[in-house]
Specification:
Order of helices and strands: HHHHHHHEEHEEE
CATH class of the largest domain: Mainly Alpha
Main location: membrane
Number of domains: 2
Family: Belongs to the cation diffusion facilitator (CDF) transporter (TC 2.A.4) family.
Number of strands: 5
Pfam families: Cation_efflux, ZT_dimer
Number of helices: 8
Low-confidence stretches: 323-328
Structural class: mainly alpha
Strand content: 5-15%
Protein name: Cation diffusion facilitator family transporter
InterPro entries: Cation_efflux, Cation_efflux_CTD, Cation_efflux_CTD_sf, Cation_efflux_TM, Cation_efflux_TMD_sf, CDF_Transporter
Largest sheet: 3 strands, mixed
Helix content: 55-70%
CATH architecture of the largest domain: Up-down Bundle
Mean pLDDT: 82
């Protein structure tokens, strides 16, 4: 499904790019050149997005024990770099034509092409972002955001061309290019920042909170404590590891069964693959005052206070002993 969507994006981007360059050569408008250059990036980005989604779908191997999903973050970062390069060229080109009075023509055709392409890119971009979020695909989300950026550019192009067409204020043509070059630069930096953060395994606050809420909503009394929670994203897949404290009087078979149930619970977090590594910790005497197991045969202290599991304390590599913490 994801690959078919990217192919659709590529085909439409090629058709739109050809139409935009055609009206640019007819008109000589710097604003239309801005729009056409943005379409080149769409074509290149869609091509690489297709390859990255294909590579991310490959199974794990000895050289890639966590799979190939992180290529999608690289694709997103490359798209950000391409956007920055295009914005730099647009800024340079617009500055050279700011005080010129070129003979512009066929602006009405340029407005029509820009309006139609903006509508197509806006609808397709919105759809790709929604599908990318539902399938947890960074490459699809980046491609969709870029198409939405191109749609915003198309709206700006139509407005700038209309002003130039009706007033003969030729400086508006270059000024609009400056404005959108700045907007493109911000978008490119944002994409690069997100992709670098993901490649460096920076914690995604929204994703970590989603995992935390899921664990809390499915918590069992036998799960005495949870800590050292780590969540890493590999494209659309997740890798989760944590330390789970269980009753120390359980035998190995019971502990194994409980961990298996815990992993099955986390595996239902999302539709894509979730890989889970759980380190089992035995309970300590200090755990008794927040342990909710009613029929514990070795309890040393009565239950006194429930410890809230939240995104702050679950990330710590420490057991939770009410007001004090001890190393696991």
């Amino acid at each position: 499904m994801k690959q078919r969507l990217v192919i659709l994006s590529f085909v439409l981007s090629v058709a739109i790019m050809a139409a935009k360059f055609y009206v640019y050569f007819l008109s000589g408008s710097t604003t239309l050149l801005t729009d056409a250059l943005e379409s080149i990036i769409n074509v290149v980005a869609a091509s690489f997005a297709y390859y990255s989604i294909y590579l991310a779908s490959l199974p794990k191997d000895l050289n890639h024990p966590y799979g190939h999903g992180k290529i999608e973050f690289f694709a997103s970062g490359l798209e950000g770099v391409l956007i920055l390069l295009a914005s730099a060229y647009i800024f340079l080109h617009a500055s050279q034509h700011l005080y010129a009075s070129p003979a512009l023509s066929s602006l009405d055709l340029g407005m029509a092409v820009s309006f139609v392409s903006a509508a197509i890119n806006g609808l397709l971009g919105y759809y790709l972002v929604q599908k990318g979020r539902s399938s947890h695909s960074p490459a699809l989300i980046a491609d969709g955001k870029h198409l939405r950026l191109d749609a915003y550019n198309g709206i700006l192009v139509v407005v700038a061309l209309a002003i130039t067409y009706f007033t003969n204020w030729f400086w508006v043509d270059s000024a609009a290019s400056f404005l959108f070059a700045a907007f493109m630069c911000w978008q490119g930096i944002h994409l690069i920042r997100e992709s670098v953060a993901a490649l460096m395994d920076e914690t995604n606050p929204a994703l970590f909170e989603k995992v935390t809420n899921w664990v809390v909503s499915n918590k069992k009394a036998e799960w005495i404590d949870l800590h050292n929670l780590r969540v890493q994203q590999y494209g659309g897949d997740l890798h989760i590891d944590c330390h789970l404290t269980l009753p120390r009087y359980w035998d190995l078979s019971r502990t194994h069964e409980e961990i298996h149930e815990f992993e099955e619970m986390l595996g239902k977090l999302q539709e894509t693959h979730v890989e889970i590594f759980v380190h089992a910790d035995p309970c300590l005497d200090e755990c008794c005052n927040h342990c909710t197991i009613a029929d514990c045969a070795i309890r040393k202290a009565a239950f006194s206070k429930k410890i809230e599991w939240n995104k702050m304390n679950l990330a710590l590599n420490q057991k939770h002993f009410n007001e004090t913490l001890a190393r696991s």
